[in-house]
Design goal:
The radius of gyration is 24 Å and the shape is elongated. Helix 1 runs parallel beside helix 2, helix 1 packs across helix 6 and helix 9 crosses helix 10. The chain folds into two domains: about 160 residues, NAD(P)-binding Rossmann-like Domain (Rossmann fold), CATH 3.40.50.720; about 110 residues. By secondary structure, the chain is of the alpha/beta class. Strands 3-2-1-4-5-6-7-8 form an eight-stranded mixed sheet.
């Protein structure tokens, strides 16, 4: 296979047409980057995404991208990465650069392309993107975890700088743990709030009222934990060693689904460890742990 010469200033293509692909594509287009093509398994979906990203962006198939652009951003579901990489390799991509946006995988997931001479790296936005428009608003200024080396990693860092972001360098083998942390800090917070709203509902509070009531509490708790650190920010019955309150909670929670009860117990067990770091006595911690474990049995 004849190797093509790279063209660092040439067109950029995007593989993927989901929320992240659209938000990142539009931001880069607005910053003057030559985003020219976007691909998806569904041509109609690619066309909708192209319209969102920019007026001159064209919808193509994955297999057409290597002939159109030598710099690609792959923003697809984690499980789809090997298949997309295989399609690009079979389409003749043997030079240029690829950045993928997966949080859990490093450049090694694109090994087939790397073997063919493509420089590969990962650039994961440490930000939640519920929809493309929200992503356009929230991605600038965010932290981006970059893994890899060579031209692709340098390009990834240039894009982060363009978006006024911060680069967080992650070793490829550490990406699963890094991504698990991101999931806990974002997806699991959403699940925790849902559980709290279910408890509120059982107490007779509507979801709208519950969200409005909990908002200042959630925001203040998160801000305190991030600014002061979790140990100094911790308050509540476990921090005080209040076993009677904990027992009352566990009894009341029996009226809720087991998933909510299990979540309360699991979070309570970790909170006990956090409280110990804050100064909770071993005797108090043991009492609280027995309460939590006893309800789980």
């Amino acid at each position: 296979m004849k190797r093509r010469q790279t063209a660092p200033g040439g067109a950029i293509g995007i593989a993927g047409a989901g929320r992240m692909a659209q938000a990142l594509g539009r931001l880069l287009f607005q910053h003057g980057q030559p985003i020219a093509f976007i691909a998806s398994r569904s041509r109609s979906r690619a066309q909708r995404a192209a319209r969102f990203v920019g007026p001159s962006v064209r919808a193509v198939d994955y297999s057409q991208l290597p002939a159109q652009a030598e710099r690609l951003i792959v923003a697809v579901a984690d499980d789809a990465l090997p298949e997309v990489a295989g399609t690009l390799a079979e389409a003749g991509m043997d030079a240029g650069m690829i950045i993928h946006t997966s949080g859990v995988w490093g450049p090694e997931v694109l090994s087939r392309l790397m073997e063919q001479g493509v420089s590969c790296a990962s650039m994961h936005p440490l930000q939640t993107v519920a929809n493309p428009k929200q992503g356009v608003e929230e991605l600038p200024g965010s932290t981006f975890a970059v893994a890899g080396k060579g031209e692709a990693a340098l390009w990834a860092k240039e894009l982060v700088k363009l978006l006024d972001g911060q680069v967080l360098t992650i070793k490829p083998l550490a990406k699963p743990l890094y991504h698990a942390a991101a999931v806990v800090a974002s997806n699991y917070i959403v699940a925790l709030i849902d559980a709290a709203l279910l408890m509120m509902a059982k107490a007779g509070v509507s979801e709208h009222q519950g969200r409005k009531a909990l908002e200042p509490l959630v925001l203040a708790a998160a801000q305190n934990a991030l600014s002061r650190g979790p140990v100094k920010a911790l308050t509540g019955p476990i921090e005080r060693g209040d076993g009677l309150t904990l027992a009352a909670h566990l009894s009341a929670l029996k009226a809720l689904p087991e998933s909510v009860q299990g979540l309360y117990r699991a979070m309570g067990q970790h909170t006990v460890q956090l409280a110990r770091r804050r100064g909770l006595s071993k005797a108090q911690a043991t009492q609280l742990e027995k309460l939590l474990e006893g309800e789980a049995s």
